[in-house]
Amino acid sequence: LAAEASALAVSLKAAVAAQWLDRWFARALRGSGEVLAADTLFLEHQPWTILAGIATESQQTTLLDAIDAELRTDSPLGARVRGDSASIPMLSVPGEGLFGGIWPSINHTLIWATVRARPELAWNEFERNTLWSHTQTYPEVWVGAWSGPDAYNSDVSPHPGYTNAQALFPGQRYPIRNMHVHSQPLLSFLRLAGVETDVSGLLIHPADRARELRLEAPTFGLSYGATGVTCHLATLGTSIAFDIVLPEGMSSDAIEVTSTAQVETTVIAPANIRLELTEPVAAEWRFTIAPAGG
After folding, report:
1. Cβ contact 234:218 at 8 Å
2. Fewer beta carbons within 10 angstroms: which end of the chain, N or C?
């Protein structure tokens, strides 16, 4: 089954790679084989071409330039989902919903994809997608102040900052308590902090080793900076591994590791170590990495 899945992945990646249109990847093909709206930049799938390793480095540069220019320019709440102002009469309004609205669930993938390819864009997109940004931009709009919808109306809409209100998709009737506006910034921050997973545990690989990072929650916490790395994770299991890129200025040959669990340290590179932890305390893993003698 694994071999079949791997073979399918190779064929799918080749199929997507063939849809490069000089500035972005095609959204879809009609039954005739014609590209759907070839002159329109659709955001939904573009970040995945970077995350899946399909876009070449030059394509990534061209693609992110196009996204920044066509989807993010003059859009204070984050990237619009498409680059034109098309709409369907009676069903949609330009700048709203699928016709140029702003979708936190989709913009998270853009943040994730640009963490290493273009970190300044990633952090800026993260900030634009917060409730704080919405409140600063549209202080008179209560939607987006303490909660929000599935998608915001963009600057192109006649009602920016609200959500769509068409008859078939009346989002404005209940424009709050969609979890994407709350969950996606948390997930995005983890990716900005370089936190990802593999089959054995967690990777902590910040793109910017000089940046101070701190996240604290009941089940996960991370403090990363010049004084070291502290992390706690509540999860089941009897063992787990952490692959960690050390903060700038720290070297794997001059650190001290302490943990509430049994820990074995392996040096992968001068600034990269692997911690293998066993025997957790109260189903929680906790460790600290500090400069030796600090």
Report:
1. yes
2. N
Query: For the whole model, what pTM was predicted?
Result: 0.92
Q: Enumerate the H helices of 147-294 as residue ranges.
A: 180-192
Half-sphere exposure of 166 (CA within 13 A, CB side): 19
Half-sphere exposure in the Cβ direction for 218 (13 Å, CA): 0
- Record the tokens describing residue 264, joined without a space: 């074995």
Beta strands 213-216 and 262-269 are unpaired
Cα separations (Å) of 135 from 126, 144, 149, 176?
15, 7, 14, 14
Taking the C-alpha atoms of residue 78 and residue 83, their distance in angstroms, rounded to an integer, is 13
Please answer whether residues 76 and 133 qualify as being in contact, where contact means their C-beta atoms are separated by less than 8 angstroms: yes
The full DSSP string for 117-133 is H-HHHHHHHHHHTSHHH
The closest alpha carbon to 246, from 263, 226, 220, belongs to: 226
Q: How many CA atoms lie within 13 A of 79 on its CB side?
A: 32
Q: Which residues lie closer than 8 Å to 26 by C-beta, 6 or more apart?
A: 19, 20, 35, 36, 38
Identify the CA nearest to 288 among candidates 200, 197, 204: 204
In sequence order, the β-bridge partners of residue 221 are 216, 232
Enclosing H/E stretch for 204: strand 201-204
Q: Express each pLDDT in 186-212 by its tens digit.
A: 999 999 999 999 888 999 999 999 999
Quick check: 175 pLDDT over 60?
yes
**Cα-Cα-Cα-Cα dihedral sign, residues 152, 158, 159, 163:** negative
* 33 DSSP assignment: S
Q: What is the SS3 assignment for 260? A: coil
Q: How many other C-beta atoms can be found within 10 angstroms of the C-beta atom of residue 266?
A: 12
Token representation of residue 65: 């330039």
